[in-house]
């Protein structure tokens, strides 16, 4: 399968997951209601507002993560060393997101606090945030092997030399 | 000294420094390449800081804490997603845009699009999309600047709250002065100065916020959770679909922000990108602490009764500074607020001016206009005036929402055409044109629908829907089209 056919399928999947989420009957506080005491704040009702939407939400988020990681993978030509690290990092990212969904499903009121946040929120702040930075670390450390190798630089210099004096008007 | 006077003096000193940088940069701006691209000669540190300070705007420093105050954890999704957003933008864009710029001496993003697709129509439409987004986003920044300045003047008894037009004029004058004199060189060097101010301020504020309520972050979250558990949960009050639509928009969307990707063209060497990304990420992450700290504290403080309810959610930052910060720190923070806002606004003025004097004329006539540098300076002034009028008369009330709208316009128009198109040889010019037209129609349509009183269900972001739609249009039409012919040099660079 061509890579961009797969990108198209992922995008369609995201669209379908969103559409399904929108079609589930809304609870009263599905996207928040005005706080009864403070008009400039909102409240989110109870966890029941996400009943029937959590699996769809997991799918919606997971497909997005899949798309982002796949696009990153497409920017690293095949055959370059340790390319599997991108897939492994994507797997870790998906696992943290699944953990967030599962812990949220168990309820917030009794959730343990980790570094100042209830567990599902802690997984967002201390899980998804740093894990996604792994892709940046890979970019910085593997740049000369994956993104722009010394051979690429030589080829680019040759291209510039060959076309010097051609179109140099900005476009 | 009166604390409010310290704040006023800090902000005036900050503005004077920005203007001084503008005068310094004037000598270094000799042609349009210097004015728009800093001569493709920026170092790693400057590029890295300019990148994060461009993103962390008035939306982040004023609108961000307001969103946390209003919705709880929901807006954390905008910050938490940024590391993968920046990483994705660097993977997709940084190398290739820098190669294209060097190969063709490009000075704007529409130049790159025209080179990639061998098409002046694509150049023109990219320029139009940039202009639409610039005016909306610039209006957000101007509004935020005027809003902050208004508070400072009012608390000093200089003018009352009715002085908003005057505040717009003062803040725009400083901004336009250094942008007109020094172009992008002034912009990135003020970004460097502004970025450092923002980092220092964010750390101090976060520490201050943690100490304001017993138990620190845990204490604040317990208060919020006790009032409404969902507000302290990962989806905040907005809910799962709204948060995940932000996740999509703010992760994929970074690759389409012209004030970000244009700076990737300005680096001295292609290889600089590897060191630029960590600097950008670190800077953004640290400054995001301000967003979290102020927003969470203000929500908790109002809920436990130690603070009166805010008149507007966007007052969160200003009220925090007046109520909790030491006057000297408050002065520094107000300077930091201006830094955040101006560092984004100057980038918009620059790319907007490029679209007006460089790209649109070339897409229509095929040629550059005479005295391009002079006209660039005139266009910068004109654009600022237009955006200021839009800021004063825009019907959208919340700064955060206007910022999200501007982000959505850029993301949906440029992610497919630039982010995907620079990497995928199969991306066609027909698809690029269709994606941009779809993006403009979808974003404008959604604004009109919302102005008519209809809301998108579940708080789903209109920008996310437009981005998803335009990307599907681009990929779908490209897959169904025959391959376009490209210039041989571009063809070869696409294979690197």
Molecular structure report:
The complex is a heterodimer of chains A (171) and B (496). In chain A, 63% of the residues lie in helices and 5% in strands. Chain A has five helices and four strands. A two-stranded antiparallel ribbon of chain A has the order 1-2. Chain A has a two-stranded antiparallel sheet with strand order 3-4. Chain A is elongated. Chain A starts with a helix and ends in an 8-residue tail after the last helix. Chain B has a single domain (3-397), classed as Sodium/glucose cotransporter (Up-down Bundle). The longest helix of chain B has 49 residues, at 164-212. Chain B is globular, with a radius of gyration of 22 Å. Chains A and B meet through α1, β2, α2, α3 and β4 of A and α4, α5, α6, α7 and α10 of B.
Short description:
Chain A has 171 residues and is mostly helical. Chain A is built from five helices and four strands; from the N terminus they run H-E-E-H-H-E-E-H-H. The model of chain A has no long low-confidence stretch (mean pLDDT 87).
Report Rg of chain A. 22 Å
How does the overall form of chain B come out from the CA principal axes?
Answer: globular
Bin the strand percentage of chain A. Answer: under 5%
The main pleated sheet of chain B reads as: none
Query: In total, how many beta strands of chain A?
Result: 4
Radius of gyration of chain B: 22 Å
Helix content of chain B: over 70%
- What value does the average pLDDT of chain A take? 87
The topology string of helices and strands of chain B comes to HHHHHHHHHHHHHHHHHHHHH
Structural class of chain A: mainly alpha
